[in-house]
Description:
The complex is a heterodimer of chains A (84) and B (149).
Chain A: H1 3-14, H2 21-25, H3 41-55, H4 61-66, H5 70-82
Chain B: H1 3-8, E1 21-25, E2 29-35, H2 55-76, H3 82-85, E3 92-101, E4 110-121, E5 124-132, E6 138-148
Antiparallel strand pairs in B: 1-2, 2-4, 3-6, 4-5, 5-6
Amino acid sequence: MSKDELIVKLKQIVAPYIQDEEAFKNLSEDTDFINDLKINSANLVDVVLDVEDEFDIRIENDDMEKMLSVKAVIEIINEKLAVK
Amino acid sequence: MTSKQIISFLPYQDPFLFVDALTAISSEGITGHYTFNSSAYFYKGHFKDNPITPGVILTECMAQIGLVCLGIYILKKDNNDLHNLEQKQPQIALTASQIDFFLPVYPGEKVTVVSEKELFRFNKLKCKVTLYNEKKALVCRGKISGMLK
């Protein structure tokens, strides 16, 4: 899957949890979930669970701690998809 | 863990402790009860000359029993060294609640809270929580989530 395709999918996943419309509209690889999109810690868990379902992968605690930006999530999704 | 042990870990005290005892405890859910003290401070203002337990207080009671007590049990059940744990209070943050209300609760009423775990992952606990009155009638019900560690 290309990076752009991943970003499109990720944008759909985070949509219900974002609190900053402007940052969401301009979502890019550099977007930070907490600082830019103002997603709270519990909804960040929801994002990760939705990523698991969407890509049929299993996220571990260590991965979760890193998943704070679009870039980091894309890296982890690619890592997991590569070993599937 | 016993009901008393779990309650001893709660970070609340009078006038904001809304748990008397827990009667069923497992990793999948918890049941507990609380009797509202007729002289509780909020009855003076909610409402003027017409004391009814505020919805936010019912929500708090549901969260303390359904989310926090269950969370404490889930976090600590596998650790037998309770003596050592006593210094370590759980850290808790309420993150979401969505509750529908059906009946009023008057001063002095005893309520029972039943909570079922929907999800516990990455420190997020989400529960389906129902509060009944002494006649076992549905008072309020909803979903409560929090982060705990």
